[in-house]
Amino acid sequence: MIVQACINGARPRDFHPKLPLTAQAMASDAAACVAAGAAELHIHPRGADGHESLTAVDATVLAVRGACPGTLAGVSTGAWIENDVARTRAAIAAWRELPDYASVNLSEADAPAVMELLRQRGVGIEAGLATIEDAERFVALADHDRVLRILIEIDIPDLASALAEANGIAAVLEHAEVRRPILLHGVDATVWSFVELARQKRWSTRVGLEDGKTLADGRVAKDNAEIVAAAVAFFRAGSAG
């Protein structure tokens, strides 16, 4: 069980005053999150214009590694980032400062090809499952066991529906006898309920401004490190309150 810090995601600049958008800001923020107890980092590199970019991975990963030596750092490969299959593949193929792992959304048509390219490059894979259909597609892949972990990521605002989807995904994985580590997270209003579910299941979780800016009591956190510290304390204490 670990707490991973997801420090920025696709959030807009005005989402939170401490949202890190440059490589150096991400590196500084990542170091604060590690000091707060984060075991790993999930980052969405940004280009000079502030937009997400797979071509910015080298500079960002290098900066983060300098600030957090020895800490695993991962990135997203979301299709929306480059918004073009060929550009996505070309950017990944051109990486020189390789992340330790990269998230791949099974809802995206090119996911199997992206996963194979990451394997060829020696980059670990977080298989992102947002729906039961994603899970079914994942377990149907011949090489589904060749991933670093399963990322159950539920972007459904209604808690009851979100929990039902997460449990449905877990059931598909169990039926297929998938034995890879699982990291579970919600978004915004469901973040802390999913942190609690992860603790109950003895799965890992992630928190940070990519997923939400509030603490369990509803207060807006001052930064990523405060959110991470709260989740780590929760995991250690075994109680949300």
From TrEMBL:
GO terms for molecular function: 3-keto-5-aminohexanoate cleavage activity. Transmembrane segments: none annotated. Coiled coil: none annotated. InterPro entries: Aldolase_TIM (IPR013785), BKACE (IPR008567). Pfam families: BKACE (PF05853). This is 3-keto-5-aminohexanoate cleavage protein.
